[in-house]
Prior knowledge:
By secondary structure, the protein is an alpha+beta fold.
Amino acid sequence: MRRAxxxxxxxxxxxxxxxxxxxETGDRIKVDVVGLHxxxxxxxxxxxxxxxxxxxxxxxxxxxxxxxxxDGTAECDFDRVPAGEYGIAVYHDExxxxxxxxxxxxxxxxGVGASNDAAGSFGPPRFDDAxxxxxxxxxxxxIHIRYL
Length: 148
């Protein structure tokens, strides 16, 4: 009986070590946003696992985050991401109002970008063009911001 409790305690301790190790290294997608033309505001990033809402409706994203701008670049990190198919949309929120500003015809007035540097012909990029496969671990994605 005592051995059973000892074995159970050892298993619980090992499980705790495994979860700490996983949390430290983690499964994450690291997004480097490059080509920002000013250090004003910050960069907003949204991670989508389907075309629904991509790229404009961040309420449909599975994760959102933001990153400060330094030397024309910004970084967004998405932690604890399960393996799957994803697309990332970003924009440069220059005036820090929390939304992508548009002109009278709906064109972005602030810089935008997407994974795979996907760009739409006459409108926003399609999820299928921005989609990539994430297998776990740490994945680096670079997105070049575009000002229209």
